Amino acid sequence: MRIIAGKFKGRKLRASRGNRIRPTSDRVREAIFSVLGSRIFGSEVLDLFAGTGALGLEALSRGAATVLFVEKNRYFSNVIAQNINALGLAHCCDTLNIEVDRAIRILEKKTRAFDLIFLDPPYRMGKAFDTLRLLSASSLLRPGGTIVAEHETEEKLVDQLANLGRFSEKKYGTTKVSFYVKG
After folding, report:
1. pLDDT by residue (tens digit) across 28-59?
2. Segment (H or E) for 38
3. Per-residue pLDDT band at 22 (split at 50, 70, 90)
4. Which of 70, 80, 177, 75 minimizes the C-alpha distance to 134?
5. Using an 8 Å Cβ cutoff, are 41 and 63 in contact?
6. CATH of 26-182, one of 3.40.1190.10, 3.40.50.150, 3.30.565.10, 3.30.930.10
7. How far apart are the first and last CA of the chain?
8. Class of residue 54 by CB neighbours under 10 A (exposed 0-12, middle 13-18, buried 19+)
9. Do 95 and 69 contact (CB within 8 A), yes or no?
10. CA distance 183 to 178
11. 54 with 120: CB under 8 angstroms?
12. What residues pair up with 119 in beta bridges, in sequence order?
């Protein structure tokens, strides 16, 4: 796994052992960032279900200002920390090693807000819709901000959810990526 564009283009990232997670492929990451375009530059990013941190690190490589990674698995939190350190990005990254639902509650109490939220939960658990619902009821996404929800093709997400509207949806094999804007 590697960074595919920007300041750290070509830099390798530490990946996971075995098949315990499903990292976002280079092809899907490239497509995501193509849709996001200039929304990345200077943004504050929240990477939920972060895995190895590839999406957040790619965002930093392309000009994001900060990333907060949320990953409950201690092994993968350590992988993220190693990737952050290898790229020299400790000054603009934080990691929370807790459940996503709990992180959302804590961040909301701290009145944190983000311009871009990546959401890439484990498949076959219905977590994409549940987490999207939690985010739509929170103040974590700034007005005009974007949520990128990666989910399996069988998990259907709605076009509109409270103040979130889907503006694009792309399919790549068994993966769908839904893009929402807070309007």
Report:
1. 888 999 999 999 999 999 999 999 899 999 99
2. none
3. low
4. 70
5. yes
6. 3.40.50.150
7. 34
8. buried
9. yes
10. 16
11. no
12. 48, 149
* Nearest partner of 166 among 141, 143, 152, 149, judged by Cα: 149
Structure tokens at 113: 């807000």
Residue appearing with tokens 């400790």? 90
Q: Which pLDDT does position 18 carry in this prediction?
A: 53
Alpha carbon 90 to its chain centroid, in Å, reads 18
Alpha-carbon distance of 123 to 121, in angstroms, equals 6
Q: Are 148 and 119 in contact (CB under 8 A)?
A: yes
Task: Give me the residue spans of the domains in the chain.
Answer: 26-182
The radius of gyration of the chain's CA atoms, rounded to the nearest angstrom, is 15
What does the DSSP 8-state code read for residue 12?
B
